[in-house]
Amino acid sequence: MRIWRPCSYRTVGLLQICRRKDDIHADWPSVAVKIFFFHKMPVISRYQKVALGLGALSGAILYYYNAYSDKDSLRVHNSWTTNFTPSVKWDHNWDRRDPKSLVKPMKISDENDENKYNEKFEAKRAKAVRHVLLIRHGQYHTDGKTDIERMLTELGRKQADATGKRLAELNLPYSLIVRSTMTRALETSKIIEKSLSNVPVEDDSLLIEGAPIPPEPPIGHWRSEKHFFQDGPRIEAAFRKYFHRADPSQENDSYTLLVCHANVIRYFVCRALQFPPEAWLRICLKHASITWLCIFPNGRVTLFCLGDTGHMIPQNLTSS
Asked: Where does the UniProt annotation locate this protein (predicted)?
């Protein structure tokens, strides 16, 4: 006969099938089935279960850390911010006049050498603020075949006069007026000069109109590369001439007026603010408008106003 009895001490909750020695006619298929269901299993203690759980938890933590190791992705931001990294950072030495680039570095870290270095460093540091006001010329006759024939219209003269009065109302200590040598710019400047007394005047052919750089997006009509090749370096040279932080010897803030053209002004704005220079054609400027840029001693640049025409009546506003 078959006898069911508990398994050995190493098998918990299971039964082992035994048979008597004289039972030689055991039903072995049924025994095999029962062995299948009551197979011996190793004993797992409470401590082993705890260790197994801790191991699984540690593995899950390591996997999560490796899968999401980017700490910035786990950082909590305010609702109005985004996880943003600037594509281009501000170049504080854009004019190559940062004191660090003007003073020879120390070779030996000695106290006396360090004092001398600091003295030279302070001597090269700018103290004043440079204000550059860019004035576009007034409306002119676009049908003229030569530059002399492209003189101001009657409306253009009214625009220039209104801008001159506005500049006088600002009551700023203008230190210099620089004008493009093209007819429409010279006329505009002469009208403005009537409202501003005792301001030195200079002419500069670097400021004449031109194509500074191929714009992006491209313009509607085709233009040969030679225009950009010739005009670009000249306009860039004008930018480097007039846009820089104040000289260390300059004690007071300065205000310089540049009377020139739309393309030149738009390019200057993009370069001064370290915007992509090819974006210059995305800006629209009215005739005789005022654009005001400020260059601080630390090299930072601020745009005070762009194409300001608030001093004109709406009927006198034109751009082409």
From this structure: Mitochondrion outer membrane
Q: Which of 243, 225, 232 is nearest to 209 (CA)?
A: 232
User: In this structure, what is the dihedral angle of CA atoms 275, 281, 139, 206, given to the nearest 10 degrees?
Assistant: 60
Residue 211 has pLDDT above 60, yes or no: yes
- Which has the higher per-residue pLDDT, 49 or 35? 49
Q: Which fold has domain 130-316?
A: Rossmann fold (3.40.50)
What is the tens place of the pLDDT at every residue in 245-274?
999 999 999 999 999 999 999 999 999 999
Question: Residue 26, by phi and psi: left (phi above 0), alpha (psi -120 to 50) or beta?
Answer: beta
Query: Does the pLDDT of residue 243 top 50, yes or no?
Result: yes
Phi, psi for residue 272 in degrees, rounded to 5: -65, -35
Q: Which residue has the tokens 């009215």?
A: 286
Q: How far apart are CA 279 and CA 263, in angstroms?
A: 11
Ranges in the chain annotated CATH 3.40.50.1240 = 130-316
d(CA 27, CA 24): 9
Chain segment 277-304, per-residue pLDDT in tens:
999 999 999 999 999 999 999 999 999 9
pTM comes to 0.73
Rounded distance between C-alpha atoms, residue 76 and residue 83, angstroms: 9
Which one, of 300, 269, 294, lies nearest residue 282 by Cα? 269
Residue 4, both tokens: 């069911």
What is the rounded CA–CA span in Å between residue 304 and residue 272?
12
Three state DSSP letters for 39-78: CCCCCCCHHHHHHHHHHHHHHHHHHHHHHCCCHHHHCCCC
Q: Could you tell me the CA-to-CA distances from 73 to 134, 209, 248, 256, 277 in Å, in that order? A: 45, 49, 45, 48, 33
Task: Tell me if 133 sits within 8 A of 291, measured CB to CB.
Answer: yes
DSSP code at position 181: S
pLDDT exceeds cutoff 80 at 111: no
Distance between the two ends of the chain, CA-based, in angstroms? 116
Rg (Cα) of the chain, in Å, rounded? Answer: 41
Lookup: tokens for 143: 């049908």
